Amino acid sequence: MRHLTLASVLMVTTGLAAPVLADGHLKIVDEPLTLTVQMNHARYPVYDENWPVERVARELTGISLKDATVGANTRNSENDGKTEALNLMLATGDIPDIVGSSRLKDFVNQFGPEGAFLPLNDLIDEHAPNLKAYFAERPEIEAAISAADGNMYYIPYLPDGKYGRAYWIRTDWLDALGLDVPQTVDEYEAALRAFKTQDPNGNGLADEVPYFARQWPELIRLVTLWDGRSSGSDTYHDFYVDDGKLKHPYAGEGYREGIKNLARWYKEGLIDAEIFTRGSSSRDYLLSENLGGSTHDWFASTSGYNRLSADIDGFEFKAMAPPASISGKRVEEHRRIPIKPDGWAIGHTNEHPVETIKYFDFWFTEEGRRLANFGVEGQQYNMVDGKAIFTEEFLNNSKPVNNQLYEVGSQLQARGYFQDYNYEIQWSNEFALEGIALYDEGDYLIDQFLGVAFNADEQKVYDKNWPSIRDFMLERQQGWILGNGDVEADWDGYMATLDNMGLNDVLDVMQSAYDRQYGG
Ligand code: CA
User: Domain boundaries in the chain?
Assistant: First the structure.
């Protein structure tokens, strides 16, 4: 109540809306302090100090960040596993006070122990009570982000919630064709074929695109229907753990079987012919044009497309349980990972490490966490019964909620913060909630690989071999799908090549790092 009263006074006296009131208890410095920041993420390649969230953080803490991003145009793709911008920054020899990026973890765990970034353990212990409390409660998170020398070098973006992606299908098309929701891989194939051949959109053309995806690795995800794996974590193409042993999905029998069948699906027109090139607008375009039949995508944002029922008669796009694989397993390979490799770190030349860790800690306070998750009070949300509730105006904007939040500097994944799933529940419609309940009931999620931190010797083996192995795997994968080569005929040669390229050496160092880190 005190806040409301003071805020009202402020508004009267200054004539300005005061979205958040700085009563001073979050102030870190008496004199304004500016820290430089490098920030890279595919969604916002450059840090913007004018983001409304940043203005409020500045007002509350006294600390402002100034963009010093090197190589802003070379974005860190979320999918390519590379960190060009970070390497470029390191090459200049000029590391900003704060470095925030997607895929930061391996980078800081390699270069932190070499001196490029500050170890955070003592700083947290002495100056960051909120971070300290978080790690005390979640010791497995601390273990998973620590480098081989036992130190933490970055504060991660920590997602909240369990469910991420699901299978989605045009249930109105199924109805129109007299089909039930597919329960097995064979029924799924039959439904996709019916979409292709029986004109469910009713325009007399075979223009339907049965399976599509915004991210092409979501095509590879379908190898799980043949008992293969496409990734061990929510990062595409990642290693996975099978009964304590590190493996790579693209060297498995189920993968071979899956790719063989997906190549057949592609040839038969069940897969978007432009799956590798259409990109992030696929979902929006193919659903809006009444062309797309099925995909594998996020609950909240995908469920929102049911708004198209206003324009497309009968439009209904619902989550379905993962179809049973050829051996009868129902697996949802994707889930929210509790820790992302994204976040931020402190450069070694930073002259204000204490203030910086306090600034990192600010984002784990109640107010900072709210700011990171919901945006600015009075703009994106209001406080209702002690909870941040998005305004109707904000939720009803035609842009997706998460995109709107990125634009104000909220939900920034190159910032270390703890997500609040309540932010997403508020824009999850009945279709999303129904789908989540379906997945919850079926218990389809599987364990994830949380990554390893190499020592210097392991890192050398990995760096020497892995990038070229990965490129080769992806090149063959796409080739097989597109009909360039035959996976069955090529398989033995493919596996021999992987061995020659050092895959087993890479798996050995992954295993030794894994055993050290997780006590295997
Ligand atoms: Ca048609």
Answer: 6-161+339-420, 164-334+429-520
Amino acid at 276: F
**Torsion angle defined by CA atoms of residues 140, 146, 151 and 152, in that order, rounded to the nearest 10 degrees:** -90
The band of 520, judged by pLDDT with boundaries at 50, 70 and 90, is low
CA of 89 to the centre of ligand 1 (A): 50
| Each residue's pLDDT tens digit, 353-406 | 999 999 999 999 999 999 999 999 999 999 999 999 999 999 988 888 888 999
- Please give all residues whose CB falls under 5 A of ion ligand 1, grouped by chain where several chains appear: 199, 201, 203, 205, 207
Task: Report CA(174)–ligand 1 centroid distance (Å).
Answer: 14
Cα(182) to centroid(ligand 1), Å: 21
- Taking the centre of ligand 1 as the mean of its atom positions, its distance from the CA of residue 215, in whole angstroms, is 24
CATH topology match: 6-161+339-420 vs 164-334+429-520: yes
One DSSP character per residue, 311-350 reads TSTT--EEEEPPPB-TTS---B-----SS-S-EEEEBTT-
CB within 8 Å of 122: residues ≥ 6 apart: none
**Could you give the 3-state DSSP secondary structure of residue 428?**
coil
CA of 207 to the centre of ligand 1 (A): 5
- Domain topology for 164-334+429-520: D-Maltodextrin-Binding Protein; domain 2 (3.40.190)
Q: How far, in Å, is the centroid of ligand 1 from the Cα of 170?
A: 14
Rounded to the nearest angstrom, the distance between the alpha carbon of 209 and the centre of ligand 1 is 9
Q: Where are the alpha helices (DSSP H) in 363-501?
A: 366-374, 392-395, 401-408, 422-425, 430-442, 456-481, 487-500
Top-tier CATH class for 6-161+339-420: alpha beta
Model confidence over 232-279: pLDDT tens digits? 998 899 999 999 999 999 999 999 999 999 999 999 999 999 999 999
- How many Å apart are CA 438 and CA 444, to the nearest integer? 10
CA 28 – ligand 1 centroid, Å: 61
Average pLDDT of the residues in 120-138: 97
Instruction: For residue 208, report the distance from its CA to the centre of ligand 1, in Å.
Output: 5
